[in-house]
Design the sequence.
């Protein structure tokens, strides 16, 4: 049973517009969430994270929103750029971010068209 | 530059053969991990190690073995017991479990294993 779900396998967005990637989780013990970005044939790179004590975290063009009651988080990229085209993985962990055993979703492939 | 080096990048294996994937890090991280990625799937944890000479099974450890004799190194052996070994294998490291930021994993570039 998937504990972290990314229900959209792909997303296509025009350059300059907003990209919204969604992620749902089922395990109420999760209290720390991360987004990773992955290019083909490369390892994932850390993008942004959020603790369950917050509902928003912002870093430049990237903002993550957390809705604990709905067990839902989303990653907003504004404005989207062609270089943002990649697979984005949502990941979750328990124990306040002190545990490195992450549970990953299946990923969403973002395509940003010029 | 600090980072994680995985080798080889591509590897072909005949059925019934064991193969070992190398992972070396110079980040001085305490914890190391092996994940597997299949097409259309997320990353699944195979094994992890929080300290030298100690490691734990992840969600899909069957058919795999690891060792952690040095802090910098965490090799993964894919044995003939692994029923479907063709996949992209990712090694990662982080600060020790229990410390803030321990879940921000740094990944290597991956090794693609193909069984012929």
Sequence:
């Amino acid at each position: 049973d998937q504990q972290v779900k990314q229900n959209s396998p792909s997303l296509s967005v025009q350059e300059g517009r907003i990209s919204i990637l969604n992620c749902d989780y089922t395990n109420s013990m999760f209290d720390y969430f991360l987004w990773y970005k992955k290019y083909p044939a490369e390892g994932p790179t850390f993008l942004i994270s959020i603790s369950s004590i917050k509902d928003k975290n912002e870093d430049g063009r990237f903002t993550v929103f957390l809705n604990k009651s709905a067990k839902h988080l989303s990653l907003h990229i504004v404005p989207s750029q062609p270089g943002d085209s990649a697979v984005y993985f949502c990941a979750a962990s328990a124990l306040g971010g002190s545990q490195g055993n992450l549970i990953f979703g299946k990923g969403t492939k973002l395509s940003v068209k010029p | 530059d600090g980072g994680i080096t995985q080798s080889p990048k591509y590897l072909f294996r005949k059925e019934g053969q064991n193969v070992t994937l190398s992972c070396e890090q110079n980040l001085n991280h305490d914890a190391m991990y092996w994940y597997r990625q299949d097409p259309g799937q997320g990353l699944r944890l195979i094994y992890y190690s929080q300290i030298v000479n100690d490691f734990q099974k992840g969600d899909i450890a069957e058919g795999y073995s690891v060792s952690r004799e040095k802090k910098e190194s965490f090799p993964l052996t894919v044995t003939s017991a692994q029923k479907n070994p063709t996949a992209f294998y990712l090694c990662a490291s982080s600060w020790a479990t229990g410390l803030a930021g321990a879940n921000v994993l740094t990944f290597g570039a991956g090794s693609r294993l193909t069984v012929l």
Chain B touches chain A at residues 4, 6, 31, 33, 35, 40-45, 48, 50, 58, 90, 92, 94-95, 97-110, 112 (CB under 8 Å). Chain B is about 0% helix and 50% strand. The longest strand of chain B covers residues 43-51. The mean pLDDT of chain B is 91.
